[in-house]
Amino acid sequence: MAGQGRGGAVFLAAAALVLCVLLHEAQVAESAVFTVGDRGGWSFSSSSWTNGKRFKAGDVLVFKYDSSAHNVAAVNAAGYKGCSAPRGAKVYSSGNDRVTLARGTNYFICTIPGHCQSGMKIAVNAA
């Protein structure tokens, strides 16, 4: 009888694991993909692009731009406000970057001198 109890516990643990994996996959499937700037891509006019859009944690932003002229840096609030990437900031430079949003406000700037100050920055709030 004691052996049957352990087998039941192993079955329940395995079933719980499968349920967790299925729930995680369902959550990933619900993620939306947004191209920053829509057809215009990541540019100097991107700062108002977020207006009227709703974002969730797990959604993906696609930054499309000329990689010889721009980049994208994920920064904190101070970096966004001051248009500077702090040490250790993740900088993307492929011209077709995919970034998954974390819960809360996600900040992005172009670190090419003068670009952020000219409007190449966005703040995205993900629920």
TrEMBL record:
Ranges in a coiled coil: none
PROSITE patterns in UniProt: COPPER_BLUE, PHYTOCYANIN
UniProt cross-references to InterPro entries, sorted A to Z: BlueCu_1_BS (IPR028871), Cupredoxin (IPR008972), Phytocyanin-like (IPR039391), Phytocyanin_dom (IPR003245), Plantacyanin (IPR041844)
A GO cellular-component term linked to this record: plasma membrane
Keywords: Copper, Disulfide bond, Metal-binding, Signal
Domain Phytocyanin: 32-127
Signal sequence region: 1-31
Gene3D superfamilies recorded: Cupredoxins - blue copper proteins
One Pfam family recorded for the sequence: Cu_bind_like
Recorded GO MF terms: electron transfer activity; metal ion binding
Protein name: Plantacyanin
Organism, scientific name: Panicum virgatum
